[in-house]
Amino acid sequence: MELPSIGFGLYKVPADQTFDVVTSGIEAGYQLIDGGAFYGNERELGEAVRESGRRDELLVASKFWGDPVQTYDQVLADFDQTERDLGIGPVDFYLIHWPRPTRNQFVDVWRAFIRLQEEGRVRSIGVANFGAAELGRLMDETGVTPALNQVESHPWLPQHELRAFHAEHDIVTQAWSPLGRGRLLDEPTLISIADRHAVSVAQVVLRWHIQIGGAAVPKSVHIQRLRENRDVDRFHLDEEDMARIGALESGVRTGSSPADKQ
What we know:
- The protein is α/β, with parallel strands linked by helices.
- The chain has a domain at 8-179 and 215-221: Alpha-Beta Barrel (TIM Barrel).
- It has helices spanning 15-27, 42-52, 72-86, 106-118, 132-142, 160-168, 188-197, 201-211, 223-230, 239-246, and strands at 8-9, 32-34, 59-64, 91-96, 122-128, 148-152, 172-176, 215-216.
């Protein structure tokens, strides 16, 4: 399966806006829609995909939340609900939303994911917010490598070491909060680079994600920004641009840390 470099996410998109946002995203040419049971808008996502008449052209992702219960059986029960809510046939990507390592259940959860894939209910399986040690356990104890790991990543938090581990094991790095929840849009260095290329700051950051070999799922409820976020192939960041962006690394997170989700 090929994964588009840029998709769009539905975290914190109100249910009553989701149908219109997804419809606009599909009309703008997106092929990847990143959802999750925790977002509370899977029914509206599924309805928009069905109404588009373009299901075969689209990739839809969902996630297992795992709280308060994170077990093999809970995965199957939660996926049953996701399957009903979406109503689109096999789900293209299903991810473990958080490893919650202190519970020591994520390997059994992964075995349930493997079952869902073997049964043809999920096309590709992956994880989110996993570290290298947790990824290693999945691979060592089940023999199955996640297709992707979705983690917070942006110029303040590039995650170089984790990206290197992913590259070694053919795991795609997919960024959530790729624009630092909008906080990066006021970064003077990025504004300067954007002005130089006559593009937006968001386009610069998303182009950076692509050029370091990753993928990203930015979120917007505005059609013009959805279109803009996808239009990142008409310019290239040179070595000086990339070095200036690289110097912004600070380790700052704009969302939850995996350590916060136990």
